[in-house]
Amino acid sequence: MHIRAPAILCSARPHGEVGVIARLMTADHGMVAAYVAGGRGRELRPVLIPGNAMAVDLRARIPSQMPAAKVELTISRAPFLTEPLPAAAIGWVTALSACSLPERQAYPALYDALGALLDAVCHAPSARGWAPALLAYEALLLRELGYGERFGAGTDGQRMLDGGAWEAVLARFDALGLALSRYLLADRRGDVMGAREILRQRLGRMAA
Fold first, then answer.
1. Strand (E) or helix (H) holding 25
2. Residues 6 or more apart in contact with residue 112 via CB below 8 angstroms
3. What does pLDDT average to in each consecutive run of 10 residues of the chain (208 residues)?
4. Under 8 Å between Cβ of 174 and 135
5. Domains in the chain, CATH or no CATH each
6. Tens-digit pLDDT profile for residues 128-160
7. The DNA replication/recombination mediator RecO N-terminal domain covers which part of the protein (predicted)?
8. I need a surface site. Which of 35, 149, 152, 208 has the fewest CB within 10 A?
9. Beta carbons of 176 and 184 less than 8 angstroms apart
10. Alpha helices for 76-126 (secondary structure H)
11. Please, what sign has the CA dihedral across residues 63, 67, 72, 73?
12. What are the helix (H) ranges across 101-206?
């Protein structure tokens, strides 16, 4: 197996003394777990930050084997992790994607939406500029994984903001959180939903 593709890093877990198991979201190959040799070293540590975009070269002798990955940074989102709200949003959406998407099943719409969401989180003047995109991504994730249209497209968040009702956006945020916890994260609720709770607390302060 040999794949070269753009990817978004969604998680990086230490493995051995200096290696990392990375979960990389690609458009055509879905979520791929790969071993990055030296991933905890000085050169690659600032590259292997969840949310970063990169070009990856994946190689394995047989398709069932975990591939080895070489990575090249294309977009760093590390500078935005010093801000509490962007850091919480990036941490949440990457963790959600890493643990809910199945291995090697392509979801190109989700890949595009995640990239656009991360760009919005990093460059919008405030959370009011990216909160609707986050709601839309969560709703799209639920639909792409087979939970139907009942969660909506998430665009109502923008209409709520246009009307100045930040509390309504938070109410939708809470409703989607219940759906994610019930349908996608039932077996990992404590591990992952804690990141969403941190984000919810920080968004809630904007209503005060």
1. strand 19-26
2. 27
3. 95 94 98 96 96 97 90 97 97 96 96 98 96 96 85 53 75 94 79 92 87
4. no
5. 2-75 (2.40.50.140), 79-207 (no CATH)
6. 999 999 999 999 999 999 987 666 554 455 555
7. 1-59
8. 208
9. no
10. 84-100, 108-123
11. positive
12. 108-123, 127-144, 156-162, 166-179, 189-204
Contact between residue 133 and residue 140 where contact means Cβ atoms under 8 Å apart: no
Torsion angle, alpha carbons of 203, 98, 4, 56, to 10? 60
Residue 187 CB contacts under 8 Å (≥ 6 apart), including other chains: none
Structure tokens at 202: 């920080």
Structure tokens at 189: 């609720």
Rounded CA-CA distance 33/11 in Å is: 9
Look-up: residue for tokens 């656009």? 116
